[in-house]
Every structure is written in C-alpha cells, then in structure tokens.
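Next comes this protein:
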Amino acid sequence: MADVRLKKIRETRESTALKSIKSLAPLLDRVLVQRIKAETKTASGIFLPESSVKELNEARVLAVGPGGLDKDGKRVSCSVQAGDKVLIPQYGGSPVKVGEEEYSLFRDHDILAKINE
C-alpha cells in the first residue's frame, strides 16, 4: 500500500502542471521534440508486442526557441524548424511529460541530423 502511494507521489513530481504541450515555448536554442514511435505491425500484418519494439532515435520537432546568442551577443537562429524530422541522441535531453505523452527538450547543437523526406 505504501509503495502505491510512493509511486503516485513520484509520478506527480515528474509530471508537469501543463494542460497542453502547445503552452510550452522553448527558450534560447532549445528544441521541443516528440520521439516517433516504432511500428508495432510488420509489413505482412503481424502485430509485435510493444516490449519487443525498439525505441527509435527519430523525432518530430514541435517547437523551436528563438535561438542562442554568440560571443558578440548576436542572435543565432536554430538549425531546425517546427515540423522537421530529426535524429536525436539515444540518451539526453530534458524529459517533459504532459498527461500520458512524453516529450524532450534538446539544445539545438545536440540534434544529430535533420532527416530530409
């Protein structure tokens, strides 16, 4: 019983008070992304258990900050835009949880590549 209460307290601390991800605006050179979930169904129609599906390093950019400042104080814009598909590191970023959805904030220079489709 105490374990259940402790788990709920941890979940409350980890989740934010945000009602919608649209109310979150990244600052400076930060980029808000959501990982793209791997397909749980194969091309032949076989459903895979979620535990066997590997987490992808691909993400969709949802929002971008105005950019960082260089050593002269001039604004340097981010290299990606909202809607871009990007390659992100397996680990890192700052997790943001809104409801059941999970997002991450990365610095622009931590984004590994932009995926051109």
Q: What stands out?
A: Residues 18-115 form a domain with the 10 Kd Chaperonin, Protein Cpn10; Chain O fold (CATH 2.30.33.40). The mean pLDDT is 78.
